[in-house]
Predict the structure.
Amino acid sequence: AQSVAQPEDQVNVAEGNPLTVKCTYSVSGNPYLFWYVQYPNRGLQFLLKYITGDNLVKGSYGFEAEFNKSQTSFHLKKPSALVSDSALYFCAVRDAGNTPLVFGKGTRLSVIA
Amino acid sequence: DSGVTQTPKHLITATGQRVTLRCSPRSGDLSVYWYQQSLDQGLQFLIQYYNGEERAKGNILERFSAQQFPDLHSELNLSSLELGDSALYFCASSPQGRGGYQFFGPGTRLTVL
């Protein structure tokens, strides 16, 4: 069975500093990995995905994520955080095909001015 | 705007009642997924339909049911409602193809009093 772990409930970072939101996964076969962001009272917005290819994936709003197969990790990163990045971030995994996503519990990112 | 629409946005009802949540997927998407987001359980997959047929089932209670109609819209029916059913219910759709990611609707916030 697939699973995702987001070890941090909350991440605080100062504006302008780099940010990292951690995610590790477990899946049989090749993983399909995703990051979504949820702003207050909104649905989930897609940020980026890893299916195959380059281990460094670039996504929306300046975010990127690095796929590390040996560490089964897919950490979300941004070189310079903005206050507007404050939101709830979800890592998700699925296997091949249009199968349901398995989500982590989410990490609340707070960027302080 | 993801292109996935959900109605209603908010629903307040009493215990023991029955409600229907509606979802219209993005144009051309055949797969529809329902997820429940609650504070204690996080984001949980409920059920998936593909072109009118049930494709996968997750942690969906027997009191809950869903269907996808020929025009591809989907409805989630929740009956004998309990206080613990209060949550955000999201619908998502995805296009064909292995790399397709899921587009989420804005959600329906259900409050059971």
